[in-house]
């Protein structure tokens, strides 16, 4: 599908995202969608506070980059407010045909809810950590209260035409929490580069394991994600220990968390430290996917985990949670979906997935088959179809 045109010229579309983080899934998504849209002839502009160089960030050469900077501001709340003002100023000056924001900024026509619903995330966090005092603080004080007010203002703003949701889970949460007209909500799942993320050949698998220092016959459970509390590293470690896998398997963690020593100490207390490896954030995780036997992600809240999609594309069985939007595309015979806080159920699922290498390979094959309809081309076609609808009927909802 070719890109939309306006009066015989390519459509001018702006994408808004705060800043580049090489380990961030949202930033990698911006990189992918910008490249895919540019390849279809759309003039893409990225508006950001700051961004890496185009080659480092993987942006296509044709992408225009506007870095707003911030000037004087105080704290994260001030930073976000200043960026929102700068974005609205740039949008008013540039007169783009469509502006797709990946940040909560009231007054823009399209919002991609890639970070999910903040109100739902706080509810899930309280389910894990509890506390009436925390609940009241989240609602009325501090940064979370500001995000909640901004989120509500954005969803109720008269200029909002469309919210792009990357899972049905997020779509339902927006309706439930904010009463948004379902006609304004479009579900477009993240696309996966199915040529790059693919099952390894036996030689590629052996090469990956050798490079990572993993014995060829030892099962390896892989975790990929930053923000260990939200993504469930503690629960995964507890389940790994409860399943008795510390004596026969390895648990490899790829991702960033400033509290990593806390999780290293937890592995020590559980008696599984020799079997647990913390590899830190990695700009390219393909080698880890190719060497591993299964992916585990018992996340409290993840609207649409790229790690789950990429692992499935690489032919890995996946054990994830009911709080993960990507679980919607995982067949029951390609892994397991459990409550993020149910350590016993998670331990049982890990035992089942790693019990038989032949069974794990068969589950991984089914995972690959299930993800094949969700390539980058389909995602791009879905976005272009949405843009065409919005441009053809400027005053109507998306659907």
Give the helix/strand layout.
Layout lengths: L4 E2 L2 E2 L1 E5 L8 H15 L3 E6 L5 H4 L6 E4 L7 H20 L3 E4 L8 E3 L5 H12 L2 H9 L1 H15 L5 E4 L2 H11 L6 E3 L14 H11 L7 E5 L3 H4 L1 H10 L7 E5 L5 H11 L5 E5 L5 H6 L2 E4 L8 H8 L4 E4 L13 E4 L4 H12 L2 H15 L4 H17 L7
Parallel strand pairs: 3-4, 3-6, 4-5, 6-7, 7-8, 8-9, 10-11, 10-13, 11-12, 13-14, 14-15
Antiparallel strand pairs: 1-2
Helix pairs in contact: 1-16, 5-6, 10-11, 10-14
Characterize the structure shown:
With 399 residues, the chain is an alpha/beta fold. It folds into two domains: 5-191 and 375-392, Glycogen Phosphorylase B (Rossmann fold, 3-Layer(aba) Sandwich); 202-371, Glycogen Phosphorylase B (Rossmann fold). Helices cover 45% and strands 15% of the residues. The chain has 16 helices and 15 strands. It has helices at 25-39, 54-57, 75-94, 118-129, 132-140, 142-156, 168-178, 202-212, 228-231, 233-242, 260-270, 286-291, 306-313, 343-354, 357-371, 376-392; strands spanning 5-6, 9-10, 12-16, 43-48, 64-67, 98-101, 110-112, 162-165, 185-187, 220-224, 250-254, 276-280, 294-297, 318-321, 335-338. It has a seven-stranded parallel β-sheet with strand order 5-4-3-6-7-8-9, with helices on both faces. A six-stranded parallel β-sheet has the order 12-11-10-13-14-15, sandwiched between helices. Strand 4, helix 2 and strand 5 form a beta-alpha-beta unit. The chain is globular, with a radius of gyration of 21 Å. The two termini are 19 Å apart. The model has no long low-confidence stretch (mean pLDDT 90).
């Amino acid at each position: 599908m070719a890109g939309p045109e306006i009066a015989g010229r390519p459509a001018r579309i702006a994408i808004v995202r705060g800043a580049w983080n090489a380990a961030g899934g949202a930033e990698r998504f911006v990189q992918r969608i910008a490249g895919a849209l540019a390849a279809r002839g759309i003039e893409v502009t990225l508006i950001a506070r700051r961004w890496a160089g185009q080659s480092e960030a993987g942006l296509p050469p044709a992408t225009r980059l506007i870095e707003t900077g911030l000037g004087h501001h105080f704290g994260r709340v001030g930073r976000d407010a200043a960026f929102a003002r700068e974005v609205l100023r740039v949008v008013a000056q540039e007169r783009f045909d469509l502006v797709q924001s990946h940040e909560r900024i009231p007054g823009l026509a399209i919002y991609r809810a890639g970070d999910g619903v903040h109100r739902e995330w706080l509810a899930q966090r309280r389910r894990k950590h509890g506390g009436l005092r925390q609940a009241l603080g989240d609602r009325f004080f501090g940064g979370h209260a500001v995000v909640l007010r901004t989120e509500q203002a954005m969803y109720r703003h008269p200029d909002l035409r469309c919210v792009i949701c990357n899972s049905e889970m997020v779509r339902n949460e927006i309706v439930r929490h904010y009463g948004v007209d379902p006609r304004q909500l479009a579900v477009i799942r993240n696309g996966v580069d199915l040529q790059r993320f693919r099952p390894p050949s036996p030689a590629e698998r052996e090469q990956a394991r050798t490079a990572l220092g993993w014995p060829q016959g030892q099962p390896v459970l892989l975790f990929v994600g930053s923000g260990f509390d939200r993504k469930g590293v503690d629960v995964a470690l507890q389940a790994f220990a409860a399943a008795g896998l510390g004596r026969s398997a390895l648990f490899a963690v790829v991702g960033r968390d400033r509290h990593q020593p806390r999780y290293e100490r937890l592995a020590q207390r559980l008696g599984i430290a020799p079997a647990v490896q913390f590899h830190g954030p990695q700009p390219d995780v393909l080698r880890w996917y190719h060497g591993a036997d299964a992916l585990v992600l018992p996340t409290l809240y993840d609207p649409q985990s790229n790690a789950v999609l990429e692992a499935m594309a690489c032919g890995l069985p996946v054990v994830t949670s009911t709080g993960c939007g990507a679980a919607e595309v995982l067949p029951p015979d390609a892994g397991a979906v459990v409550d993020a806080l149910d350590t016993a159920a998670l331990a049982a699922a890990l035992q089942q997935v790693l019990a038989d290498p032949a069974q794990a390979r068969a589950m991984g094959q089914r995972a690959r088959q299930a993800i094949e309809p969700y390539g980058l081309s389909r995602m791009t076609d879905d976005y272009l179809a949405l843009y065409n609808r919005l441009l053809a009927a400027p005053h109507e909802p998306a659907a």
